[in-house]
Amino acid sequence: MEAYPNGVPSMSIENIKQHRQRLSVQSYEEYYGITLKEALKKEYTVPGFEGMLLSTRSRKVSRGKYAVCKECKCSMKKEHINKQGPPKFSIANGNVVGTFPTRIPCSTLGKERQNRPINEEDISPVLKAFMSPVRPFGYVFQHHGGKQKCISGHYQFFETDQNCVTGALNYMDKNVANNVFVMICGATTPRQNETIKAKTSVDIELFKDIRTWFIKNSSCRAFKDEPLPSNIEEITPTIIRDSTDAGNEEEVEPELENTFGGVTYAFSSAQDPVEESSVFKTSKKFACAMVKQSNPILMLHGGNYAKEHEVDIEAVLPFAFPY
Q1: In the chain, is it the N or the C terminus that has fewer CB atoms within a 10 Å radius of its CB?
Q2: Buried b (16+ CB within 10 A) or exposed e, 228-262
Q3: DSSP letter string, 99-132
């Protein structure tokens, strides 16, 4: 097996092109019965290999040779040229998912001919939760701060009764979601309060533009029959404070206090937490965690209501599977 000096296998341009039919856009579209968007095909088009679905991250390692993964190298031997299916771990084997574009059309009346740039920092976890057409979880975004402390928190996802939640877009007729919560806990400065609220607020124009893009471009079934969001004027999560007098901490180090630190992500089952042991299996483990002030680690597993096999993952995580 020919390999790049650092150990990465390589193949000649001629050898790769011998597998054109196995890795072609045409074969992919015929097998899955779909037509790939031009923007999506462009993401997997390597110059000189037009019409094939390849990784643009691969590099030419020497004259006439490209780096390939070991698995694809093993699946693209001469004896495999006439095989009908693509290599097991290739992009052409059902892995054409794409990435969310960096520019999308505006949907606002009067701006239809303009494009909006999309930056990663613009898409907050709260916006992502609102964008999901299917929400099998209750989303809790908890923040805390205080003087001489940066803002940090926990993002938790609790399984909920899918009979009530799955496929139900509560915000279409009510501007406050009943399964997306923002909590501000403990001591915070007034400016930290405002920073948290700004961070978790939803830019309605941005929401409309992204939502419209998904409805028009995603092949996810959950987006197919969704109405365009032109009549939505406001979307807000449910905001919960642990006390009415919080938020009055004196500001000491504004530069530190108004920055966001680390965030932990946690998942629970439909049975967690319980009063006696929280998300821990025993009350003893719960007590030890409280004494050590350690964060609970919650793993996702099926509850009484969740039927994961009935939920398309692209409907729950649309930004991970935009097309």
Answers
A1: N
A2: ebeebeebbbeeeeeeeebbebeeeeeeebbeeee
A3: ---SEEE--STT-TT-EEE--GGGS-HHHHHHH-
Alpha helix ranges (H) inside the chain: 13-17, 25-32, 38-43, 70-74, 125-131, 162-165, 190-200, 204-217, 221-224, 254-257, 283-292, 313-316
Calculate mean pLDDT across residues 75-101: 89
State the CB neighbour count (10 A cutoff) for residue 278: 17
What percent of the chain stands above pLDDT 70?
74
Copy the structure tokens of residue 229.
């969001």
Task: Give residue 273's identity as a one-letter amino acid code.
Answer: P
Q: Tell me what the pLDDT averaged over the chain comes to.
A: 77
* Residue range 212-244, pLDDT digits in tens: 999 999 988 888 878 887 777 778 888 877 766
Q: How far is residue 96's CA from residue 29's CA, in Å, rounded to a whole number?
A: 11
How does pLDDT run across 284-306, given as a tens digit for each residue?
765 665 555 444 443 333 333 33
